[in-house]
Amino acid sequence: MEIIGSQRKPVHIDVVPTLPLYRSAPPLEVRLEDFELYAMDRLRVLKGIADGLSRGKKSEEMKNLADHLWKANMRHLDASEVVNKDIISHFVLRLVYSRTEDLRKWFLSMETNLFRYRLLFERPEAQRALMAEFDLPYRAASNAELESVKEGLKQVAQSFGQPLAADVIFYKVPFEEVPELVAGRRVFIHKGYAYVAMNQVVSLVATQFRSHLSKALILTNRKWTSTIREQEKDRLTPIVEALCSSYLGPDYSQPREFAEISIKDIDQIAKSSFPLCMRHLFEKLREDHHLKHGGRMQLGLFLKGVGLKLEDALAFWKAEFSQRVGSERFDKEYAYSIRHNYGREGKRTDYTPYSCQKIITSAPGVGDHHGCPYRHFSEENLRAALGKMGLSNRAVEDVMDKVRNRHYQLACTLTFEAVHGTSCDAGINHPNQYFSDSQKVLQSKNQSTV
Amino acid sequence: MTKEEIENGTADMEIDQREPLNGERSELNAVPDDFNANYLKVYYGKLFPHADIFKWMSYGNDGKHPGCDESYFGRREFSFTLDNDIYLRFQSFNSASKLENSIKEKCPFKVDIGPVYSVDPAKRHAYAQSGNNVFTPVEKELVFDIDMTDYDDVRYCCSGADVCLKCWTLMTIAIKVIDPALRDDFGFNHILWVYSGRRGVHCWVCDAKARRLTNEQRSSIAEYFRVYKGNENSQKKVSLISSALHPFLLRSYKVLEEFFEGNLLSNQSLFSTEERYEKILEMIPDESITSELRGKWQDNKKSSISKENINVDRWKHVKKILKSGKQKVSKHMNHLLKAPFCIHPKTGRVCVPIDPNRCEEFDPTAVPTLSKLLEEINMGGLGTDDDEWDRTSLGKSIRFFRSSFLQPLLKSCKEEIENSYNAKLQHSKTSLTW
After folding, report:
1. Does the CB of B224 have a partner CB in chain A at under 8 Å?
2. Of chain A residues 134-173, which have a CB less than 8 A from chain B?
3. Is the pLDDT of residue A258 over 60?
4. pLDDT tens track for A208-254
5. DSSP states of A309-361 as a string?
6. Whether B313 is catalytic
7. Strand pairing of A193-197 and A170-174?
8. What is the C-alpha separation between B40 and B20, in angstroms, rounded?
């Protein structure tokens, strides 16, 4: 795979009807920008799958989720480029995720799951064609063999409520090849061979896929450490190293067309639609008429992302701070930094509101109220805060369970779900996302009650 | 048990052995019931089948065929538990005599067998430097470790460490369920069942295919045998909805039915008290069934099964007694299990093989003990050293081990070595042509 600069040469590749198996890096040329963007799109899919699995979604739901994620993220304007994007993004992520044991494990798991779900969505002919690509020690069981094990096959089929169809193809496979099917007693096994129905073959194929990818990742890691990392230290290496920890959602830096909130309604909206971190900051601000720098940044940028215009923001902060430090001091010491956040001062960078990742890794000190409550609050305080948000005891326990396992964003997601009474499939990874999702839910509720 | 690893040997031990008088059978020969280093010394000196264990663990790699792997036996880990709970891991030997001498010298209270590693365990530190997991298990028998305490809530004749013929039936059932599954379903042939010495059985599956199973594959076999799919903390609810069972469950039920009606019911009086049947009712998720049963049992306090109850009863008991979830298949290759023919320190009994085809005849209370064997030696008088074991109660067990397990295993191993050697030759011949 060749990475080239901005100039682009069109590459013609036969449209492959089956899923790519990523056996070897294809001879494609990739633009540097696409190198990163394609990988990020694919990463969204993988992280979405990881999220779904950690929420305990069942197989059918996961299949649909994976399909949805794939269609949402892996499209391309140019139809012939879709396959390229698939392949390129996979190989880029291989570089990223081959570098440590943990990364490899995660990537292996998610890619195998993705492959499995995509395979399940394929038509039977495509599935069969794909099987031919694998070096599987299976063969279709002969009629004579099937006769001898017919009773067993029937019993197994009945045991999970699917009566045996008349002319189902069965593959005779060594039982070691299909551990999942054996474990679940989903196959009849006899003398060391499992009789796998056509529709169970996906399991076989996924195992092979996984094993191949596992070996490939080790090789990739070797190549990376021995040559690529050094060679590419000015070009690809920084991208690769940043990719696995990057925040992938929208950055909320573009203010909305219209202000989502007006100062008049802000108290009400804070109660209904702010995530806990911002609600806490907001309440402390109302209480103390002051916030330290970290809090001003976190809340201030959040409000900007929500659509609060500069003039309104100045008015809002001034109304609070002047109760504590007086309006002259506000104008002198604090107004500047608010304007700075909006890109009207200094180097005129339009700062982007903080993502959950950034907030979670911040380090609030004495007198600070910023940070992520799920991470930074004591258990007692967090329970109290959740109670104030109206969560039932049961919901609080579920949230605390996530917190104990350090899944802070999942905890926030559960809170969202409890407060709004709906499910949040995408999971929360940005406070502004919480806000806009919340507003969506509330608006649709309003509409339905009208 | 605290384990402290030391690399050096232990001190020599003094032996005080009684000289047997010719043919005399008197209190002089009687050996008080005990388990100690002196007795063990005699046991390891005259009775423990060192050579057989070596042959087994070599799996045919005895150097007689060019295709043999001469390093194979030396890469096997053994561990010794010495007196005072001192635990020596990563013991390895590259010959039968080294193994035998080490056991005789160190006189371990327990010998465990671990996996075959990629390199000699004694050299593992040298390989750890390269940091690429070069020292790693490559082969290990598939083993099951079944303990009576896993069945404590269905046995009422004994509890804890005690075991008698009545509750041993549960072990018999376990063997009768697992053994056919291993042979018929999984196609394994070289299976050794061993009495664990106190209250359980071990099963060693020694086929080459079994030895090479990955951890994931071992887990899947464990799952296959597990009837309870819930976790330990959840109410052990199992679906009673489907009346069709996977052939494994069906076979298991049939075994159970045979025993249940014959044996277990009267032995264990499972329904006789309220406390006991409540425990059983807990197993059933369906409220309507449980309340109906409770009513019936309260009416007639005696243990009884009527024809109507049988349908429901059979379900509970298949599930309950086949609590194979706890039949611990070791899911990891680097697992150590006690070697057959060791002596259990708490009971003095020898870990003898069990014939799965006649497991219902096995009586754990009749297994020879260390002191009994020593007594038999004392009584034996003069004779060639080599055959001393044959004149004791251990003889039967060792002969059974050889004929039903070791010989067929070695035959199959040698065939395999020969075949793979010939295949390699064939392959290199064809690739040489140009």
Report:
1. yes
2. 151-152, 155-156, 158-161
3. no
4. 889 899 999 999 999 888 888 888 888 888 888 777 666 666 666 65
5. -HHHHHHHHHHHHHHHH-HHHIIIIIHHHHHHHTT-STT---PPPPPHHHHHT
6. no
7. antiparallel
8. 18
